[in-house]
Write a structure and sequence with these properties.
The protein is of the alpha+beta class and about 700 residues long. Helix content is about 20%, strand content about 30%. It has three domains: about 210 residues, 6 Propeller (Neuraminidase); about 130 residues, no CATH class; about 280 residues, Alpha/Beta hydrolase fold, catalytic domain (Rossmann fold). The chain contains 16 helices and 35 strands. It starts with 10 loop residues before the first helix and ends with a helix.
């Protein structure tokens, strides 16, 4: 998908993560435009290179599902509106028989932001008779999230639920007579005001590096009030759900909410780290999703499936050797469990089924090589499957798979304008680094590539695959724009997330050293092939990629310029707060920084190795994370090393304001043009930017000459 949702344990991800999705709304600068997204079926155009604004304005799928009768697909689309610094949404319905008529049902409301400000896709839900479409929505920021419904025939909209609080989850009960709602509400002002009346003991709720007022941190850290309600659809009566109703529909939540301990459930959680559970519609089976995040279980982090075939039976492994289970859901009659599995190699997830008590997964569908399918849903008979289709040069499109013929049909091109844009194709390359670990990346040559010419190179991180190559992880580095500007781009995947052996720093060190070794191996191959000039190589990192970049600039002289490069240091350790200690302990980095761990910090911390840095660094931060970068910034500035730090207001880990996103796209392009090609944009509005950068270059050259 265009903005792939990936959660990792890294410096940046933990800088902003709250515990609950509703907390994210307290730091939200992007606006909402109630005008629905428009889909243009026929758009004439003249071939031209891709621009940052083209990428910003893409229409992105934000949830989809096929009707139980298999005749229609409902899907939500989101789009950034740069001029208004806002987002639009839209709910649409298309027939699966190939009818080109796409019906618009109007706006789907504000984006569903999570706790790091990613727009999390949420599938519309169909009633069992395929006549009603439901979706969690609110008309404006500040209102409660409720379930809304649209008549599938007329498109008429109505608010279904009216509970006091935010509907965070819901599901239709098996006969369609009612909805079971999980409702949350934040602590009231009266509840949070108590912290202002006395001193606050330093605890894991407080994260100093976040630069957020203490009272706000305490409020956001509290578990919200969680209740379960039944909405009776015909009578519109809303009542509290019974314990049985909760347990039957939300097994994990009911276990926590009621306090009743089921012996099987308790023994299960002791053996597995269960993160989700899904009961079959008939109530006879339960599927569990669990994390594999301990070195004793597997050297690789991942997610797998368990199933209880029927009441009273033992829990059984469905995917004991899988890397990562993406989705899992039941057929409407409860006889079949469907799931999608990723291999971690950048290929599309494969769709499997488990029928009845036969726990051997059967392959339902797999994409062709170089195509990427995701966001599956099935009709009531398992005959048709809706999904998203994309490849390296095509943004996601709405598609349907016929299970019998195993053929895929594309139904809706959300961005037909993109077909007129000139793009450079991507080529997958693979290799093995000096640690014996495999790597892969996607090579994009300059748009008007000339054979036997050596080009500057930009390496983007940290994930890659057969999906649309938009802006790499974090969506801050416009790959096709780089190619149009004369760069070779290597969209690099850093490999599997490893499970660290507790307290083993050498094991943790491989999270940064091995990707660097892989990148060096790949670049060496491109240099040897005569494609890349080794003196003009840049690095682009976001989140985990920033960590790799921070390690790289002190352990390699490969990169002349970087956008995003920093890593943990003793200053951040002091600012991290109590909540981080468990993680640093696991990595072998906890304790007095001048004691046992001193040598470890000396190995990785950029401020302690600033004299070794020869890379010009552009760092993008937010007002909720910039303190984490200050030690590196100060050290490099004091040594007259070229570094520039930009801070964006009202943002979290994922910078989502359209104006900010466009500016970051353009500045990253300018940065690499300046440092790798000695080119400057003549736009008068950027004169101040380039004047600063010329000064950085001059000061850096003087510092280098002095050190010699």
């Amino acid at each position: 998908m265009a903005r792939r949702v990936i959660r990792v344990v890294c410096l940046c991800a933990f800088l902003f993560c709250g515990r609950h999705s509703i907390s994210a709304q307290q730091v939200q600068g992007a606006g909402f435009d109630p005008e629905p997204v428009h889909l243009d079926a026929h758009v004439p155009g003249v071939p031209r290179p891709v621009t940052p604004r083209d990428l910003l304005s893409l229409r992105d799928p934000q949830g989809m599902s096929i009707s139980p009768d298999g005749k229609h697909i409902a899907f939500v689309v989101g789009q950034a509106i740069g001029e208004a610094n806002s987002y639009r949404s839209g709910l649409f319905v298309v027939a699966t028989d190939g009818d080109p008529d796409i019906r618009s049902f109007g706006s789907a409301g504000p984006p569903h932001w999570d706790d790091i400000n990613q727009w999390i896709p949420e599938a519309p839900q169909w009633s069992h008779d395929s006549t009603l479409i439901s979706y969690r929505m609110r008309l404006a920021p500040g209102e409660h999230w409720q379930v809304w419904g649209w008549d599938a025939g007329t498109g008429q909209r109505e608010q279904i639920t009216h509970v006091n609080g935010d509907v965070e989850k819901y599901r239709w009960l098996d006969d369609g007579r009612a909805l079971l709602l999980e409702v949350v509400s934040s602590p009231s002002e009266q509840e949070t005001a108590k912290w202002a009346e006395r001193g606050i003991v330093m605890d894991s709720d407080i994260k100093p590096y976040l630069s957020i007022p203490i009272l706000a941190q305490k409020a956001e850290s509290q578990e919200p009030k969680r209740e379960y309600w039944i909405h009776e659809y015909e009578t519109k009566i809303e009542r509290r759900a019974t314990t049985k109703e909760i347990r039957d529909s939300f097994p994990l939540e009911s276990y926590d909410a009621t306090g009743s301990i089921d012996e099987k459930r308790d023994s299960l959680s002791a053996k597995y780290q269960i993160v989700d559970a899904n009961p079959s519609p008939d109530g006879k089976r339960i599927a569990y999703l669990y994390m594999v995040n301990a070195a004793a279980l597997s050297p690789r982090w991942g997610r797998r499936l368990l199933i209880r075939p029927d009441k009273g039976s033992k829990f059984a492994e469905v995917t004991p050797d899988s890397y990562y289970i993406d989705q899992y859901w039941w057929s409407t009659d409860g006889t079949t469990l469907y799931f999608t599995e990723r291999t971690g190699l950048g290929r599309a997830p494969r769709l499997y089924s488990v029928v009845g008590n036969d726990l051997v997964p059967q392959l339902v569908f797999r994409a062709d090589r170089s195509e990427y399918l995701s966001s599956f849903s099935s009709d009531g008979r398992g005959k048709y499957f809706a999904c998203l289709w994309e490849d390296n040069n095509s943004p996601p499109q709405i598609a349907v798979v016929d299970a019998a013929s195993r053929k895929l049909k594309k139904l809706v091109d959300l961005n037909p304008e993109f077909a007129f844009l000139r793009q450079s194709p991507a080529e997958r390359i693979e290799g093995t680094n000096r640690f014996g670990e495999n790597w892969f990346a996607y090579l994009v040559k300059p748009l008007d590539y000339e054979n036997r010419r050596k080009y500057p190179l930009v390496v983007t991180t940290y994930r890659s695959g057969d999906y649309f190559l938009r802006g790499a992880s974090g969506d801050e580095n416009p790959i096709q724009v780089y190619a149009a500007k004369g760069f070779v781009v290597l969209n690099f995947d850093v490999g599997f997330l490893r499970n660290i052996r507790p307290g083993d720093f050498a094991d943790k060190l491989l999270d940064w050293a091995s990707p660097l070794a892989s990148i060096e191996s790949a670049v060496q191959r491109l240099v040897k092939a005569g494609l890349v000039d080794p003196s003009r190589v840049g690095f682009a990192g976001y989140s985990h990629g920033v960590e790799i970049g921070g390690y790289a600039v002190t352990h390699s002289h490969l990169f002349r310029a970087a956008s995003g490069a920093d890593i943990y240091n003793p200053c951040f350790y002091a600012l991290a707060g109590e909540g981080w200690r468990e993680l640093f302990t696991k990595w072998g980095l906890a304790g007095w920084t001048e004691g046992r761990t001193k040598a470890y910090w000396q190995e990785i911390a950029v401020p302690l190795n600033a004299d070794k840095v020869s890379t010009a660094i552009l760092q993008t931060a937010t007002d909720t994370d910039y303190l984490g970068y200050m030690a590196t910034y100060r050290a490099l500035k004091d040594l007259d090393k070229p570094i520039e730090l930009y801070i964006y207001a009202n943002e979290l880990h994922v910078i989502n304001q359209p104006k900010h996103r466009l500016e970051i796209y353009e500045r990253n392009v300018d940065w690499f043009l300046f440092w790798l090609k000695d080119e400057e944009d003549p736009n008068p509005a950027k004169s101040g930017q380039f004047a600063r950068w010329r000064k950085l270059k001059e000061e850096g050259q003087k510092a280098t000459n002095t050190s010699r």
